[in-house]
């Protein structure tokens, strides 16, 4: 993998925290990176951050460590109070602002984790912040790149790229094979593809219902990718299945994979988000055939495809439950034209514009009778509830978890059909910004504009479990 040789580990150099030269301006740079990666608690006060950093450096804690990494060399130095081998790195800000994030500093209120900033040409962190008690040099770090791919193609059907994810930290990571990541082979919107003019191909792939907490609860071996320190995994993706280059045209495109992953914390069994650092993006010139047909036309619609008799029976009930959910949500919003606990929980602060948008979504969903949909039971994925192609109205593909879900209630069969139908282009055009009740509630609080576009928020509002008025 390009650049990894630059990250070869060297022997740690120990130094006394009292000898660190520190520039308070560095705090702002590190905090921006920390906030971006979700490592700051909600109660964190940015106004006192520089003082907290300074106190951590001066006073320290025998059970907590700071680490400094030189750019490109990746040599390490750990703050070990009581060890008097003294090394005093100069103030980076005073010498070269380009390397202003070299230091790794300890902040007491941070949750366990670490943060890295990666160079553009090498997959090597210029800064790490470690906030992990009782574990020396416990560092969680991933590097992601497109390791294999053509430099030019005369048909988009040949645009196959291999994404490689490397555990460059020193802790084993149990990563979810989330369909929104390169670890899954579903043709989801996993890549950022842009040409020099900012043009991007249109997404024509699938969107799926996936509940990370349920995956952790079931704990199937096939649901995870476990990477030991230094280990890697490579997954090949056919980009022609997910992207149509007709509108963006023939051009040279930069291709980068989505770098957001979730792993299971070994101590708490809780899900934690981690962002991989990118090595160089992959560049490919695309010409000739700019789109491929996804599949042959279904012709006359049928109610079921590849479904057993028992599955058909289940789907009749699920379609009825979904219809009831959509009708009830529409009725509720028609009569409840002011703020309510239920609305705020799932869609954030009430505004007339947002209320109008959500009402229009459920009105369209209720009108598109669920009993007239086509249901395809051929999906064999064990971690996904269902998926749709947003531009293929009326066809829902049911997967493994759907058949084990309750008919109604949270993450139910009826609710799954609400979730999936909301994705259709001619209904609500929802996205999958987040999955699961906890994340959906948080999204409503932090970003109501995205909450009203998120499929799970639509599902949970309709399921209304536990019931809210």
From TrEMBL:
> Is-annotated flag, keyword Endoplasmic reticulum?
no
Keyword set includes Ligase: no
Task: List, for all copies, the residue spans of the domain called Lysine-specific metallo-endopeptidase.
Answer: 331-463
Q: Where does the signal sequence lie?
A: none
Top-rank lineage group of the source organism: Eukaryota
Per UniProt, the keywords (alphabetical) are: Hydrolase, Metal-binding, Metalloprotease, Protease, Zinc
CDD domains from the xrefs? M35_peptidyl-Lys (cd11306)
User: What GO MF annotations does this protein's record show?
Assistant: metal ion binding; metalloendopeptidase activity
Q: Which SUPFAM superfamilies match?
A: Metalloproteases ('zincins'), catalytic domain (SSF55486)
State the needed cofactors, names only. Answer: Zn(2+)
Q: Which Pfam families match?
A: Aspzincin_M35
Concerning its family, UniProt says: Belongs to the peptidase M35 family.
**Protein name as catalogued:** Peptidyl-Lys metalloendopeptidase
Q: Which organism is it from?
A: Mycena venus
Q: What is the lineage of its organism?
A: Eukaryota, Fungi, Dikarya, Basidiomycota, Agaricomycotina
